[in-house]
Amino acid sequence: MTTPVILWLRQDLRLADQPALVAAAGEGRVVPVYILDDETPGDRRMGAASRWWLHHSLAALSEAFAEHGVRLILRGGRASAELAKLAAELGTNRVHALRHYEPWWKTAESEVALTLDLQLHDGNFLGPPDRVRTATGGRYRIFTPWWTALKQQMPPAKPLAIPDLHPDAPPRHPDESRDPWDPQVSRSRDHRIVDPGVRRDDEIWSDSLADWNLLPTNPDWATGFSNWTPGEAGARAALRDFLPAIPRYDHDRNYPAIPGTSRLSPHLHFGEISPATVWWQCAAHARAAAEPYLRQIGWRDFANNVIDMFPDYGDHNGRAAFDAFPWHDDEPGFVAWTQGRTGYPLVDAGMRELWSTGWMHNRVRMIAASFLVKHLLVDWRRGERWFWDTLVDADYAANAQNWQWTAGSGIDSAPFYRIMAPLAQADKFEAAAYIRRWVPEVDTSAYPEPLIGHRAARERALDAFRTINASS
Ligand SMILES: Cc1cc2nc3c(=O)[nH]c(=O)nc-3n(C[C@H](O)[C@H](O)[C@H](O)COP(=O)(O)OP(=O)(O)OC[C@H]3O[C@@H](n4cnc5c(N)ncnc54)[C@H](O)[C@@H]3O)c2cc1C
To answer: Which residues, judged by CB distance below 6 Å to any ligand atom, belong to the binding site of ligand 1?
Structure first.
């Protein structure tokens, strides 16, 4: 039996293009572990919709590892403590993991490194966000120059194949591909005989996924989530389905009634597919036409650059002047917004889509967020927290960065005085069919009056903005 090596999985729930897995497999017998850590993140522990996704993603990952004769271990508790315990049980101190930029993951990484030999690898971004630097070695605070600099480091390394996870197995036939994009691979897997001897870690305790109660019951609010297929295979299928739409993406992505975007965000958040894989598949299928799409993937990297510089970005304004902004404590307005009852059809459609499916179209996210902050003058942090709990793609970096961008409080923001008009936006982006789908009562007397008129809201917002010193 070869030396056990721990693979610590977090938001990287995949086997393909997983540098930490490749490194671990190169050293010994891989023992993958996922730790449900609600302690280190504190009040940033995973929200309810993300937990739904996590359940299904872990079930898929566990099956994928099992196909390779490897058992995924599940543990609950503080990541550093649980890893230390597992390492002691296995008689190893070697841990491989991908690097993450959320502040609580940085804390966990430092804690783990105190007692174990933690090897961190890059691989969840197009490039390591902290290594995209200006000519003088500084950090970028604005997206466009960042993207230009990141592109100079592209293309990313070619995606890594799934390594051999059964070190005692006879050498594999050279023709047997591990590339998951190769149609041969599933066939070769079907014929693989799993040696019962590989279940050597059976004596190691693993929690049962069902006991983690990640799925909602009573009420089961996730019945509308059925269109998602969490897991690595689902991620690949979503990308495959989207590839033919890339040439139209730059236009279609703004129209909520058109399924013009990839819907890869929860897959990317949970690391079920690597951005490098997305890059190479897009380059192969769409070449230059892929640029507008890859630019959006670049925003994901940029958001991680921002939280790497400002770890508390989810809770603190990027521009200090906004600390004095006179937010309104409008509880009825906030509740109406969460329930999709503001009287603005496009805002309400978006908020209902979010509640029903765990996702909202990007343009509608901008409009709904802008409405909360600028029409209702509710602090962006309340909206950010609502999204954190209800999005299946809830991502600390992307959520904070986009909320601050929309609110005008961020380091790289739309100016506050650009106030989106929800009715005009609905016309401009031909949202009628989308609205009818989510707000069927829109043309009836059952639909509420607007909480506030657009013109009055705009004046009120600009008055509030004038009270702060927006130059700081
Ligand atoms: C207020 C607000 C909050 C948001 N919160 C999140 C969040 O918690 N998690 C999240 O992943 N995205 C968030 N976004 C960004 C964006 O809305 C989603 O990434 C996108 O709608 C996901 O759908 P898609 O996968 O079809 O995107 P596509 O248009 O197909 O884009 C491809 C990928 O690029 C990335 N991406 C696209 N746009 C952005 C962006 N503006 N910022 C960062 N990454 C981007 C995502 O990973 C996305 O999957 C937020 C946007 C707003 C305005």
So the answer is: 253, 261-265, 268-269, 296-297, 299-300, 303, 362, 365-366, 369, 387, 391, 393-395, 398-399, 402-403, 406
